[in-house]
Amino acid sequence: MRKSVFHEDWWLDALAPGSWREVTCSRGGRVVGSLRFVTRTEGGMSICEMPQITRFLGPTVTLQSGKTEARMRLAHAVITDLLKQVADFDHVEMTLDTGFSDVAAFLACGYEVRAHPTFMLKCTSPRDELWSGLRDKTKNVIRRARERLAIREVTSAKYFVKYYQANLEGAKSYFDLSRLEAVYAAASERQQCKILAAVDSNNNVHAQVFFVWDHKFVHYFLSSRDRSIAHPGSVSLLLWSGIELAHERGLHFDFDGGIENEARYKFVVAFGGELANRFDVSRSTIRYRLHRQLRRVPQALLRRLSAGAAASDVNDHGVRLNHFPSS
Prior knowledge:
Aminopeptidase; Acyl_CoA_acyltransferase; about 25% strand; twelve-stranded mixed beta sheet; alpha+beta
């Protein structure tokens, strides 16, 4: 129920300028709970959700010390109050932080709850202990990558965006890339982000990773690699650099979920983190569920018809985006 980097005004302003909202709950003249979100319409229906590429954003609840029973009862009441304030939306969805383990209020309000696992690594241990916690094969991959690659900081969000877009190889990004520059500018101003690149001796950029952090976690936020040249250990080396970053700040490292995929699970578990659950929670009206079901049919047909044409597309970016930008 903590306030994370994703709850900050500046984060929301960067990703959803002028369009995010907040509902609050007060007790005794003091705000004890809040829920931030963005709204949009789809097919004439109202939707309450998180801004794009925001990893989680559920309610924040501030409780005073006291008996566990009293604190849990108050938290349940505050969350219920917040959910009632968004009850008129046709669809509500959000992801809860790993520290948000009590989902009883959501279940009582008719929400569906699904586990969204991630790995967390406590990085306050000595660096040698963190290194020894890695799988031996992963350590060897990182060692080999170090022989060929150097880690450099990227200070141009525009360059990261172009590199990320080029490596999509014609595919559509799942988020609006134009917002990344604003996110980087806001986070960089507060010294809460860093973009690192793995670069070889010829100045070729094999991969880049965008990290963001708050007072508790360094988040593995975004990554991209050039499949045509990328060293097999380039992303592993960058992830280890992110773990070192968290270690320097006395923070935890969040590998950012996505481990429902078997290959990603095997990749991430090798870094020695512990499993933790975020929760995806959602509630929909019958009208909205019917609308979504009907939309799937033409979309599936369109994907089949466009598959052949997409395979023949040529991706000509016209610039050497796999070269590290000169200062």
